[in-house]
Design goal:
It is built from 30 helices and five strands. It has about 650 residues and is mainly α. It is globular.
Length: about 650
């Protein structure tokens, strides 16, 4: 029997026919709810006792918990033979865990649908967002409104629900259905008057239904509430919308003929441009470049077709055409591990061949684009070629005075600034120049990249105020210009903020990471996705003074060598951990360089391996003023200075 669980309302469970299961009393439901909050992790019996009786347990509380668990097991698995081990509510170590698939818990199903909708165009996102909201039957964990163990999860789910409602309204607006959005948005702002995005969407919906006066009245009502009750002025989005409505800005009203215009232009192109022509090939690459920015499906399709376009250009035997085809794909990058190493290596090889085939003089723009492509696509591989090509591409772009080419070259140089630790200030300066350049010349995609680069760099320097600013700015630009993949990075940044804040509980930070990982799944970035959730959770545990997860089924992907010593230590296998530490390869020169050296340092300290301690100390010393790992904008192992202090103390002992 497949059991489903509901926490978006009163806590309940259903069998595979949708019939409610008899969960008996409130304590039984509290045990079940507490295990669902833990998301498959073990909850020790002592913690269950403390949570159920809020620090004042009666005599026999442990026995009572075991009785509750036994009753729940009978309800959840009524057909289980006597003395057969439970498969859903299991005993593990000092406590219990609920081992169930994510899609059998309504809250996790809601999160999955919410995250999947983020990468879809409005027409496809709308039904997915409605599906996401379907399971809600009331406030999350409604039976336990005051339980401390449910508080952060209730708040997180409530916030996510409100965000989903607002995204659904935005999808209606994007589809030209503003009149359908107005009633729900009106109720939304009445119930949640402090959500500025709700007021913005309501005013925009009213404006698009021809009610300009009502739209302005809504914005003034929002200002009055914020000033009177919170003592703050509306944010820039609301202020800008009011100004745009007053001047009736063109961008407030979408062009309903946009789709028809696209279809007509595509038909005309198909009729007039000869199949197989050079013009068609170059146009295809430009289209692939734009497609890569539209979301997961577009990114994957673009990546798969790019090499075919390069191969087709080479087969025509025209190095100038091939240079243009390769160089036109100036898709920004801010992660140092490529998504498809084989395809990337073949593009780099083609760029090198074309570079050698071009005349020794002239064609500086084509040469600069090829050099930037080589530098960008060879990121994280080590060796001198990447930095050399990045520097030469930047020099040529500056000489040519081409802002788009310079932005591409600066991106390439950024990807090559990981040859040692402690380079966050240099990367921050690059991000600042890129942002200024892109803003001046209206290069929106590179403008977003500039904000993300500075987000990463300011986080590394523990400048949370600055990093927060760049996260908000990147998100706002991405939403306005329909760049959905940006949300992956800003969501991971919010998880990093939770992990780095000692006032936020381990459970809440862990939940933020799991939510960010769910958003990353299927985003079309395997080079970033593989092993990242496990690595972030490992760093979170070590930073909070907890052992690594000791389970055998955690997939650390390419980060496994640096995680393995910690996993073995958690399993009380120090000899094997020492062997794994001794076999560690040299860390790749990428965004995770400080993270891997910090993991190495912590393992060496635990195992008292002095030679490894010395190597780790030497590698980390230039980053003494940074947060280990935070330059990723995704995770952290705390201040590098703390690791250096511990290494110095151990080496002096």
């Amino acid at each position: 029997m497949r059991v489903s669980f509901g926490v978006l309302g009163p806590v309940t469970a259903w069998d595979d026919q949708g019939r409610p299961l008899a969960l008996r009393g409130p304590r039984h439901r509290a045990v079940l709810a507490r295990l669902i909050v833990a998301r498959g992790r073990v909850v020790p019996v002592d913690l269950l006792v403390e949570d159920l009786w809020e620090g004042s347990p009666p005599d026999g509380a442990v026995s009572a918990v075991r009785t509750f668990v036994a009753a729940l097991r009978r309800a959840l698995e009524p057909d289980r033979p006597p003395r057969a081990p439970a498969t859903l509510l299991t005993t593990r170590g000092p406590g219990y865990a609920l081992e169930t698939d994510p899609d059998t818990v309504d809250a996790r199903l809601f999160e999955q649908r919410h995250q999947q909708a983020a990468a879809l165009p409005p027409a496809q996102a709308l039904p997915r967002l409605r599906q996401a909201l379907d399971p809600w039957r009331g406030p999350a964990y409604a039976d336990f409104p005051d339980a401390p163990w449910a508080r952060s999860e209730r708040a997180r789910l409530a916030e996510l629900r409100l965000h989903t409602l607002e995204r659904l309204s935005q999808a209606l607006l994007d589809l030209g259905q503003a009149d359908r959005a107005v009633p729900d948005l009106d109720a939304h702002v009445a119930e949640h008057p402090w959500r500025e995005d709700g007021w913005r969407l309501l005013a925009l919906a009213l404006y698009r239904t021809g009610r300009q006066g009502d739209a302005l009245a809504v914005l003034r009502r929002a200002r009055a509430l914020l000033v009177e009750h919170l003592g703050v002025e509306p944010g820039p989005a609301l202020r800008r919308l009011e100004q745009d409505i007053l001047r009736q800005a063109d961008h407030l009203t979408p062009d309903p003929a946009g789709d028809r215009l696209w279809s007509r232009a595509a038909d005309a192109y198909q009729r007039t441009v000869t199949p197989g022509s050079r013009v068609r090939l170059e146009s295809t690459v430009s289209l692939l470049r734009d497609l890569a920015l539209t979301g997961p499906e577009g990114l994957q399709a673009s990546r798969s077709q790019r090499l075919a376009a390069v191969t087709a250009a080479e087969e025509l035997g025209d190095p100038h055409l091939t240079a243009r085809v390769i160089g036109a794909y100036d898709v920004p990058a801010n992660w140092t591990r490529v998504d498809d190493p084989d395809r990337t290596a073949r593009v780099v090889a083609a760029a090198e061949r074309v570079l050698n085939a071009l005349p020794a003089t002239g064609h500086e723009a084509a040469r600069a684009r090829l050099l930037a492509t080589i530098a960008l696509e060879s990121r994280g591989t080590g060796g001198p070629r990447g930095p050399e090509t990045a520097a030469e591409a930047e020099r040529l772009a500056r000489d040519l005075g081409d802002p788009t080419l310079l932005a591409f070259a600066l991106n390439a140089r950024y990807m090559q600034t990981f040859h040692r630790t402690g380079l966050a200030p240099e990367r921050d300066a690059l991000g600042a120049e890129l942002l200024t350049l892109a803003t001046r010349h209206d290069l929106v995609t590179f403008q977003i990249l500039g904000h993300l680069v500075r987000l990463q760099s300011r986080a590394a320097l523990a400048d949370w105020e600055g990093a927060d600013h760049h996260a908000r700015a990147a998100q706002e630009l991405a939403r306005h210009h329909e760049r959905p993949l940006t949300e992956v990075f800003t969501t991971w940044y919010r998880a990093l903020r939770a992990a780095a804040d000692p006032n936020i509980s381990f459970e809440e930070a862990e939940s933020a990471y799991r939510g960010a990982a769910a958003l990353l799944r299927g985003a079309g970035m395997p080079g970033l996705e593989e092993g990242m959730e496990a690595l972030a959770l490992l760093c979170l545990r070590l930073q909070r003074g907890l052992p690594a997860p000791a389970g055998p089924d955690t997939d650390h992907g390419p980060h496994e060598p640096w995680a393995r010593p910690h996993v073995l230590l958690a399993q009380h296998r120090p000899d094997e951990a020492a062997t794994a530490l001794a076999r560690l390869p040299e860390p790749p020169r990428d965004l995770l360089l400080e993270t891997r050296w910090s993991l190495t340092a912590r393992a060496a300290l635990a195992l008292r391996e002095r030679p490894v301690m010395r190597r780790a100390r030497e590698a980390l010393a230039p980053a003494a003023g940074e947060l280990a790992g935070a330059q990723t904008g995704m995770l952290t192992l705390g201040p590098v200075a703390d690791h250096l202090r511990d290494l110095d103390h151990a080496l002096r002992s």
